[in-house]
Amino acid sequence: MDRASRQVPEPRSSAEVTGEHSQFRLDLERIRFSPYFSRLSAVTQVIAQPGAGPLIHNRLTHSIKVTAVARAIAVKLTDAASPTRAFALEHGCDAVVVQAAASAHDLGHPPFGHLGERVLDRLARESLGLADGFEGNAQTYRIITALDVSEAAPRGLNLTAAVRTAVAKYPWTRYLDGAAVGAGDGPLPRGLRRTANGIEVLKFSAYGIDAGDLRQARRGQPPTQQSIECSIMDIADDIAYSIHDVDDFYRAGLLSEGAVAREFRGWLKFGSKLRDLDDEAIAARSSPPGSALEGLRRKLHRSDPWISDDEAFADAVGVVAEDLVDGLLAIAFDGSIASERALSSFTNRWISHLQSSVVPAPKDEARTGLVTLDRRAWHEVEILKFVHRHFILDRSDIVLYQRGLSRVLTRAVKGLTAWVHDEHDRDRVPQRLKELVEIATAGYAQLRDERPEGIPLPEAAEVQSLGVGRGVIDYVASLSDDQALAVSEAIDGRPDRLWDIGQNL
Fold it and tell me: Could you point out which of 146, 274, 322, 496 has its C-alpha 20 to 30 Å from the C-alpha of 335?
């Protein structure tokens, strides 16, 4: 049996839990030496690199920091003096598996961050006939199992089942069977939503073409439950971006102390009155300061009643207001040693606090993994993420820029698809694109042969066109931000950036 087929032992031996298990360390090295990992240095986190400077996080620096936070959590949980050690050992927590999953978790992010994800999903479904579209988590799984290369396997990195399982944050496909999450109207795992027509899959970790590998890796695991290493990686990701995004926005001068202070002070002063307003009034453009935070409070009650608490929410608003609004943002970042020290102190203090606040989750709670943040820290992270969403992502200047980038990806996908289908010129398609189309086409043919349960099977006549569609999406998703711009402009007949395309062609 090859190492990629080897199952996760439960519980693992104490030697494995030391974090020095040789197979898992080899997995970690394969991920970190991957060109897909290196590529993340040129992929947007939130603020595009050309306009932000080298000190702003990209997907690579984010992944490195997520890995550091995740390892610290795993080591704390398994420490000999920790009250969580028995729990961690029972579930087989391995620090190197955690590091490998954290290092790999963003490999599938396309150019331009979450915007690119949305655009490629729309194009995949509406223009290319790919029913399961595009999803960054599923693309990550596809990279490690089918697209990346290793001398030890014909395709993929030949990673152990434990690491592949730990990468699968939403361990199902877009075709999740409702029976897997049970009947009734109880809470669903994050990434799923009940509608009048059944369960809607918002997030997933494998396309139908890769479902067989995910099923094999997770054999014996509960259908929708993350492994403990995956749960740690997931929390570390939340911690890192909730803090480092604030770090970036402050450094780039995008966080207005006045606007943030108005919102926080409005809720702290008039929160009781805001509760009397209906949802429509809260969401109105003319709503009073504090309304957006009140909307968040209501949303948390609806989506996460298992942990949402008004007192904890109020405490979290107060703590973030004191440390962020009245502390960090009170003095503008000017690049001085003093401002760097203040920012470093803020970041280190919060990271240390949050990573030490990870605890075993309530048993059988669908909305969380095997571990979670304690009630206080959970609310604090939700408030910090709110700052990111409300004060940055909704800015009109950022939205304007994103609309332009969506056209870049649309030109690239449609132009490359037309080229592959052009009977007069398809022989000159870039070699890498040809290979990705061949891999995808073979995958769809294999899907027809293996007929995995619950996955729609393509008709024989569809295999080639689906292979082209998935191959083009795989190709565009593997570009850096600059390469995507260069490909789009070259396809559009603009030679200005022709030589920026690099080795992907």
Answer: 322
